[in-house]
Specification:
Blueprint lengths: L15 E5 L4 H12 L3 E6 L2 H14 L4 E6 L5 H10 L7 E4 L17 H24 L3 E6 L22 H26 L3 E6 L8 H9 L2 H13 L4 H4 L1 H8 L8 E3 L10 E2 L9 H15 L9
Parallel strand pairs: 1-2, 1-4, 2-3, 4-5, 5-6, 6-7
Antiparallel strand pairs: 7-8
Length: 309
């Protein structure tokens, strides 16, 4: 994978992908590059207007790109179910669980979950489960890629307080949600191996990429000093969104991707072309993975009956 770039993406003609949060940042780049290489791409976006604008930009940047927009609000399980029902007849080869929120003040989703855990993990857990039959039908080459963060190393999931009701810390909640992403991929991979399914579950992280993820929360709260600090970091220390998307694209398309792989930049986990990434030991804990899975099924009401075990 030395020096791997978007130009190395294999031909994606005949494949269909869903990318959550595809209207900006690394989600936008991921969707654009999959479409540039021939995939049909569904841009699953909370704002249909921003999704439509993103689709127009993609078509301008990648002439002939086959992209379409569909509304999806991961903070509302009703929206997740509606999205899955709308696409139940479609082919699906790639599901890129990219959308996320970071370091928000305490707030809850429409279903009462802490927002970062609810959006970053539970929403994607439900979406993957509801789309699983289509992914299994696609056969060899089908993949689920979840986007985590190197910041997962700052906090493991506490099964006794998934919604952080005892004590909330915005960065601790973010770290836990990103650990949950990796635990989900670990347990999903275990179940796929057990059943012999021809579907690969992998994860990726962008390192430190310049996107609006860093500035969204301070802008929302009017914390101009923090917003400016994040903007300076993005400008001088972060890598571009194009480079930040490469680990996700590698996990989604490269031929040497295996169950439970995790890709990211090599230099301090911040910058560089994709490589297999270090991860916290708790994200490979079978007991923790099973526990989070059971809790996620209970909280979302979505069961992975095809992968029971």
């Amino acid at each position: 994978m030395k020096g791997w770039t978007a130009n190395d993406i294999p031909d994606q003609i005949g494949r269909t992908a869903v990318v959550t949060g595809a209207n900006s940042g690394i989600g936008y780049i991921t969707a654009r590059e999959l479409a540039r290489h021939g995939a049909q791409v569904v841009l699953a976006c909370r704002s249909e207007a921003r999704g439509t604008e993103a689709a127009e930009r993609m078509r301008a940047q990648a002439p002939g790109a086959d992209v379409r927009v569909a509304p999806l609000d991961l903070a509302d399980l009703k929206s997740v179910r509606a999205f899955a029902a709308e696409h139940k007849g479609d082919r699906l080869d790639l599901l890129i669980n990219n959308a996320g929120v970071m370091a928000l003040p305490y707030r809850r989703t429409a279903d009462g979950f802490e927002m970062q855990f609810g959006v970053n993990h539970l929403g994607h857990f439900a979406l993957t489960g509801l789309l699983l039959p289509k992914l299994l039908e696609a056969g060899p080459g089908a993949r689920v890629v979840s986007v985590s963060s190197f910041m997962h190393m700052l906090g493991t999931v506490d099964p006794r307080d998934l919604n952080m009701e005892r004590k909330y810390g915005r960065w601790a909640a973010y770290a836990r949600s990103k650990s949950a992403n990796l635990l989900f991929v670990h347990e999903l991979s275990r179940r796929l191996r057990t059943t012999g399914a021809q579907l690969t579950a992998a994860a990726a992280h962008p390192g430190y990429a310049s996107t609006n993820l860093q500035t969204a929360a301070p802008k929302m709260e009017g914390r101009r000093g923090t917003q400016r600090f994040m903007e300076i970091g993005n400008r001088f220390f972060a890598q571009s969104p194009d480079n930040g998307a490469l680990p996700t694209l590698y996990a989604a398309t490269a031929p040497d991707v295996h169950q439970d792989d995790f890709f990211g930049p090599p230099f301090g986990m911040w910058r560089g072309t994709p490589t297999r990434s270090a991860r916290a030991k708790w994200t490979r804990d079978d007991k923790a993975g099973r526990g989070l899975w059971a809790a996620s099924e209970r909280l979302t009401g979505v069961r992975y009956d095809a992968l029971a075990g």
